[in-house]
Amino acid sequence: MKVQHNLPLADLTSLRVGGPAATLIELESDDSLPTAVLAAEGPIRVLGYGTNVLVSDKGWPGTIISNRSGQIRVEDDTITADSGADWDELVRSAIDNHLWGLEFTSGIPGGVGAAVGGSIAAYGHRISDRFVSAKVLDTSNGGIETWDGNRFNFGYRRSDLQLPENSHFIILKVTFSLSPSPTGELEYESALKAAADLGLAPDSLENRRRIILEARRRAGSLLTDQNQGPWTAGSFFKNPMVNEAQVDAILSHDESGISRDQLLRQNVIHGGDQARVSAAHVLLAAGFQRGQAWGKVRLHPDHVLKIENVGGASAQDIYNVVQNIISTVKQKLDITLEPEVRFLGEF
Ligand SMILES: Cc1cc2nc3c(=O)[nH]c(=O)nc-3n(C[C@H](O)[C@H](O)[C@H](O)COP(=O)(O)OP(=O)(O)OC[C@H]3O[C@@H](n4cnc5c(N)ncnc54)[C@H](O)[C@@H]3O)c2cc1C
To answer: How many CB atoms sit inside 10 A of residue 168's CB?
Structure first.
């Protein structure tokens, strides 16, 4: 366990911004999170692989635990992993053991803990559908609890672990139940197109993984070489809930020529007149453009939802662009955008 003081957190995040943690504890392979918590001072936050976080330039006044290692164990149809294990390695282990259910989340960067806390999903498949339980540490008293799906109360890119009143809980270990026979279908147009182009049928685990990785590569959704920029935390905003009138407003501003059907097909329908629409279309309809830049911060030239640090941006620069986007979208379309990326520290 490596304990350091006043070390900038920028290098521990995929956006490469963020000030120092008063104390930074980096876990190594044999270290345990509960032991690190005992050595912590002040308010504690855990970071996984830093791919979904915007750390303030002021840093963090207490202890940051960097948790990037852990074991993955497969037993029959069950897979259990420490929260610091790499998510894609877990998916790989499932595939190597001929277990279905997580293959559509191949290539999502980050660790197992944040994957569960943030309820990750891709190509129409949510990992919460395969979740059984997690061991969770209460850092306020050192107690370890078992949380099931009800306790997490998973939703679209959220769980109750993210509520401010639960910020003293840390995920230690997670268990998923997988299937020895095929589950789910490949439905997404972009993935079906990748399958056709590769000449692969999505009927084996290996093929599904290759198709998804290719679809993600085309969508700019693989975390590429971290030694060079631009740096990103992936899609910055969640797909917002909208009503019929707001769908009309998006279409009336949209210049991409998308039809109502196409726009709604991308949605997760939640009943009534409420649906989610792709946040990317919302940004375009509000007048933002691919490649648009504000100093060292820009929107990805192909994928407008990915906010990038092209090199030398501060966390506040990124935060200001985020606030500009949120207020412009509210003003022009009366849609409330919610960041998917988590903020850490004071802005
Ligand atoms: C290129 C790119 C593509 C992406 N594609 C997708 C995608 O397809 N689908 C998707 O859902 N997401 C996607 N993401 C977002 C990201 O991969 C996920 O949110 C991932 O789960 C983040 O993991 P992490 O370890 O990097 O989390 P971090 O950024 O380290 O942390 C994120 C949050 O989780 C908390 N946290 C971390 N570990 C724990 C723990 N053990 N206990 C409690 N809290 C914890 C942190 O405090 C922080 O609030 C993408 C990101 C990038 C950069």
So the answer is: 14
- Per the CB < 8 A criterion, the answer to whether 337 and 237 are in contact is yes
Identify the residue whose C-alpha is closest to ligand 1 atom 36: 114
Ligand 1 atom nearest the C-alpha of 157 is 11
Peptide linkage before 180 cis (omega within 30 of 0): no
Q: What's the gap in Å between 97 CA and the centre of ligand 1?
A: 25
152 CA → ligand 1 middle, Å? 16
pLDDT number for residue 266:
61
d(CA 342, CA 53): 5
Q: Which of 7-11, 249-253, 258-262 has the lowest mean pLDDT?
A: 258-262
Report d(CA 257, CA 52) in Å as an integer. Answer: 31
Task: CATH 3.90.78.10 in the chain: give the residue spans.
Answer: 231-344
CA-wise closest residue to 344 among 13, 6, 69: 13
Q: Which of 26, 37, 45, 47 to mutate to test the pocket of ligand 1 (most atoms within 8 A of CB)?
A: 47
pLDDT value of residue 274: 57
pTM of the shown model: 0.95
231-344 is classed in which CATH architecture?
Alpha-Beta Complex (3.90)
Binned at pLDDT 50, 70 and 90, residue 173 comes out as very high
